[in-house]
Amino acid sequence: MKKRFLTLTLAVTMSLVIGLTGCSSNSGSKTSSENKKVEYSKNIPEKIATDKDGVKIMVIRKIGGDDHTAQFLAGAKQEGTAMGFTVDTFSANGDTAKFHDAISQAIEKGYDGVIISHGDDEATVNDVKKLTEKGIKVVTFDSNAGIANVQGVTMTSQDDELLAKLALDELKKVTAGQGNLAYLWVDGFPPMVSRNKVYQQFLKDNTGIKEVDRFGVAAADTSVQTQNAVSAMLTKYPKGKLNAVFATWDAFAIGAARAVKEANRDDIKIVGIDVSNADLQIMQEENSPWVATAAVDPKLIGAVDLRILAKKIAGEETPATYKLEASLITQEQLKKAGKAVNMESLSEIVPGWGKSDAFQEAWMTELKGLFKK
């Protein structure tokens, strides 16, 4: 009898709890990773507050093996985790089959949202269609332009035209608008196509600078292959015959810098695009040929993409496209700092670096406060 009474009491209590929870359309609770119960206020979007399993996000990047990729993935994961989301990341390291397989798995595992980076082929467009048909929200970065035809998707990118312009303007400055140039570039990726358009116009406008050689491959060992290729170039062009290298990706610039230093060629200046801790270290080495790079903080890119995706999951309006503003980082700026500069301290010498309140909503700030460790 006593056992039956306890059972009935428990059932009534549970019914009351469920009933009370159902009365508030914009509130709920979740247990954090530290087993701390978190109570949501009415400010938290209903679709997030009432998700019993918690928001689950997958970040999938086709290219990899570089610090830029690691920073991008870390930025997305850190931003999502701070809001109490589960964020899984995957880099295919340039393997197309693994990249598409990861997207298929994301569909099967029922993620709430997916961020796709560098999905350059037509198959990615079909993948995105499948994701949206399943009700999974999607944000892409530097991916196939055809994705623009899939409704509800936001396509993000760096301002690649500005990146190329900043880099090439600096290259013109360090060469005084005269000299022979090696071009490190690879076709097939939307950002590379955009950068190449600016480069081609630059050559037309600056006839004193001439391209004499080029190389480019996107692989897990891009830096190594580039180093070997540039080393071979240096044997073809003795001192005075090659004055600069324009590297449209920091993986190219890393390989080029190693080759130039090993050959003791102090007559060649390298200007690149993108930045990472490894890049900054090389730029700050004594007699480094890498004199400038144009970049957007890759960690910030990941964070902003995550915020856009969170807004989609919350049912809020988001734009079809978004470009992140670029900055120029010079070796001269780094030297003036008077200390070793890394990605964390770069903001001290480059105004606004790594900071953006783009798509940062009040409810996101509230979530971060609730899940703060």
TrEMBL record:
Cleaved signal peptide residues: 1-19
UniProt keyword annotation of rRNA-binding present: no
Source organism, top-level taxon: Bacteria
Major site of localization recorded for this protein: other
GO cellular component: a single term: outer membrane-bounded periplasmic space
Coiled-coil annotated residue ranges, if any: none
Localization of this protein: Cell envelope
Domain Periplasmic binding protein: 58-317
GO MF, one annotated term: carbohydrate binding
Gene3D superfamilies: 3.40.50.2300
A Pfam family hit: Peripla_BP_4
CDD domains: PBP1_methylthioribose_binding-like (cd06305)
Keyword set includes Signal: yes
Keyword terms: Signal
PANTHER family associated with the record: ABC TRANSPORTER PERIPLASMIC-BINDING PROTEIN YPHF, D-XYLOSE-BINDING PERIPLASMIC PROTEIN
Family the entry assigns: Belongs to the bacterial solute-binding protein 2 family.
The protein's name: D-ribose-binding periplasmic protein
Species annotation: Clostridium homopropionicum DSM 5847
Gene this chain is encoded by: rbsB_2
